[in-house]
From TrEMBL:
<comment type="similarity">
    <text>Belongs to the ribose 5-phosphate isomerase family.</text>
</comment>
<feature type="binding site">
    <location>
        <position position="128"/>
    </location>
    <ligand>
        <name>substrate</name>
    </ligand>
</feature>
<dbReference type="GO" id="GO:0005829">
    <property type="term" value="C:cytosol"/>
</dbReference>
<dbReference type="Pfam" id="PF06026">
    <property type="entry name" value="Rib_5-P_isom_A"/>
</dbReference>
<comment type="subunit">
    <text>Homodimer.</text>
</comment>
<comment type="function">
    <text>Catalyzes the reversible conversion of ribose-5-phosphate to ribulose 5-phosphate.</text>
</comment>
<feature type="active site" description="Proton acceptor">
    <location>
        <position position="110"/>
    </location>
</feature>
<dbReference type="InterPro" id="IPR037171">
    <property type="entry name" value="NagB/RpiA_transferase-like"/>
</dbReference>
<comment type="pathway">
    <text>Carbohydrate degradation; pentose phosphate pathway; D-ribose 5-phosphate from D-ribulose 5-phosphate (non-oxidative stage): step 1/1.</text>
</comment>
<dbReference type="InterPro" id="IPR004788">
    <property type="entry name" value="Ribose5P_isomerase_type_A"/>
</dbReference>
<feature type="binding site">
    <location>
        <begin position="101"/>
        <end position="104"/>
    </location>
    <ligand>
        <name>substrate</name>
    </ligand>
</feature>
<dbReference type="GO" id="GO:0004751">
    <property type="term" value="F:ribose-5-phosphate isomerase activity"/>
</dbReference>
<keyword id="KW-0413">Isomerase</keyword>
<dbReference type="GO" id="GO:0006014">
    <property type="term" value="P:D-ribose metabolic process"/>
</dbReference>
<protein>
    <recommendedName>
        <fullName>Ribose-5-phosphate isomerase A</fullName>
        <ecNumber>5.3.1.6</ecNumber>
    </recommendedName>
</protein>
<feature type="binding site">
    <location>
        <begin position="88"/>
        <end position="91"/>
    </location>
    <ligand>
        <name>substrate</name>
    </ligand>
</feature>
<dbReference type="InterPro" id="IPR020672">
    <property type="entry name" value="Ribose5P_isomerase_typA_subgr"/>
</dbReference>
Length: 230
């Protein structure tokens, strides 16, 4: 299980920098995870202290709660046909700014939100930068009825599947969409190709490879912020 408190200073720097990019009148998509939590908190402070006015949507029940606690009332994702900016973390980022996401099992809604967005800011601490994607298993969300089929087809692609199990609850993790998640280890892969191949499997809703919908910029939270652009 991930340590959400690891590298907290770097996550905070990256999250607060992304929140500073948001201007009044913008429509904003908010991702899920410990780094995005800092961005949400800073946006809430700006709403309170600076009179920032935004409309936003979130990618999970967890982020909805954080937004409400920060004084931001999100709208449903389906309220928006486009977004000005979206902010989210990642589990891995490669030199081409392709990502693995989904440690929080919210990657399906995250991909929808980032596809709607004109600018996707990815916020990470330096530990998330990798030379090759794949040390972090690729999350795959799928319909429960398709479990056996999806597992069989992922194995054909070279995958080693582990059903994500809940903590402090018997049974598997159930996503906000009512589905299950395989965390899949693959041998070295072409992220652009594998993303497409996984999504052709009947029953798969979405996977955590973000090769097509890469961020426009990655903000790396260090003592001096680093900015990686495509």
């Amino acid at each position: 299980m991930k340590d959400v408190n690891a590298n907290a200073d770097g996550k905070r720097r990256a999250g607060e920098e992304a929140a500073r990019r948001v201007q009044s009148g913008m429509t904003v998509g908010l991702g899920t995870g410990s780094t995005t939590a800092f961005a949400i908190a800073e946006l809430g402070r700006r709403v309170r202290d600076e009179g920032l006015k935004i409309e936003c949507c979130v990618t999970s029940f967890s982020s909805q709660n954080l937004a409400l606690q920060a004084g931001i009332r999100p709208l449903p994702v389906e309220s928006f046909d486009r977004l000005d900016i979206s902010i989210d973390g990642a589990d891995e980022v490669d030199p081409q700014l392709r990502l693995i996401k989904g440690g929080g099992a919210a990657h399906t809604r995250e991909k929808i939100v980032h596809a709607l967005s004109s600018e996707f800011l990815c916020i990470v601490d330096p530990s998330k930068l990798v030379s090759q994607l794949g040390a972090f298993r690729v999350p795959v969300e799928f319909l429960p009825v398709s479990l056996k089929l999806v597992q069989r087809e992922l194995v054909k692609l070279g995958g080693d599947c582990a059903l994500r199990m809940a903590v402090k609850k018997d049974g598997p993790v159930v996503t906000d969409n009512g589905n299950l998640v395989f965390d899949v280890a693959f041998p070295p892969f072409d992220a652009d190709l594998l993303e497409k191949e996984i999504n052709t499997i009947p029953g798969v809703l979405e996977n955590g490879l973000f090769a097509r919908y890469r961020p426009s910029e990655v903000i790396v939270g260090e003592s001096e912020l680093r900015f990686l652009k495509r």
